[in-house]
Amino acid sequence: MNRLTGILLVVLSAAAFATLGILGRYAYADGMDALTIMALRFSLAALVMLILLAARRESLPRGRGLLLLIGMGAIGYVGQAYCFLTALKYASPGLVALLLYLYPVFVTVLSAVWLREPITRRRAFTLGLALIGLALTVGPAGGQWRGAVLAIPAALIYSVYILVGARVMREVSAIRSSAVIFLSAVAVSFHKKAANGPQQPATGMGWAVIAAMVGIATVVPVVAFLAGMARIGPTSAAMISTLEPLVTVLLAALLLGETLPPVTLLGGALILAAVLILARDELRQTASPAPAPEPGGGLAPGVEQVARQGDH
């Protein structure tokens, strides 16, 4: 049951994160730039998490865990977003998206090196299947080498973010972790924004888009991903997250009227097949008994009691 909950949390995270690209389209149409979106998104998300902490009478983490979380927010979260957005200036969105979703490969390799997770034949097959599906789904087309040079570090930064998060989640709840990550991202994004000048939403619809970004595309997916990763490990969480671009493509077709060619549907089927294989393998594993959670930790009493089992 613990692993099933973890899988469902990561699926929820991927689906929620997938809305970010669609909401970004509306934000750009309202006159905002990337730095404005980042600054408002992170600052309001941090405010939501602080309110949650106060309501639950929890405090921010301290010591080594706090320093790692600050690094995850200031370097990992902002660094990945900055590299990704800059890469879009030089390469097609499809190519940049495909290169970003190399991160499950990086997570698998880094987990084998740092965390001694074995790369089984079945895991390698599942990962390859997901990557082929991604290639077909996003449909990369052209692009300059500078875009690729920036997109690949975005994938690598996010991989390290996931692995560091797996370590921190052994000791700190998802809500406390998310609060520090967002606060750290706020400090960096507002520093970058100050040099660019103010560019706030122009209409009420623009503010509504930002609100949706905060709730649907930031708070929910970040907390859900951290909580799910604590249950099933970083490699499996990264692989299940490959559902995200499929959901993005489907939302683009539904909300923006973009067509879905047969090759995209084939890619989506391969991603779903990879995720189903992984989910079946996870459920067949014997879940380790989880130690008692820290007081007040997690999403809700009896639901987000994060198992500090680390890697499986």
SSE order and pairing:
Blueprint: H1 2-17, H2 19-29, H3 34-55, H4 63-87, H5 93-100, H6 103-115, H7 121-138, H8 145-168, H9 174-194, H10 204-232, H11 234-240, H12 243-255, H13 262-284
Helix pairs in contact: 1-10, 1-12, 2-10, 2-12, 3-9, 3-10, 4-8, 4-9, 5-7, 5-8, 6-8, 6-11, 7-13, 9-10, 10-11
Explain the overall architecture.
With 312 residues, the protein is mainly alpha-helical. The chain has one domain. The chain contains 13 helices and no strands. Helix 3 packs across helix 10 (204-232) and helix 5 packs antiparallel against helix 7 (121-138). It is globular. It starts with a helix and ends in a 28-residue tail after the last helix. The model is unreliable at 286-312 (pLDDT under 50).
List keywords for this structure.
0% strand, disordered C terminus, mainly alpha, 312 residues
Give a quick rundown of the structure.
The protein is mostly helical and 312 residues long. It contains 13 helices and no strands.
Q: How many strands in all?
A: 0
The count of domains is: 1
Structural class: mainly alpha
Strand fraction band? under 5%
Largest sheet: none
Give the helix level as a range of percent.
over 70%
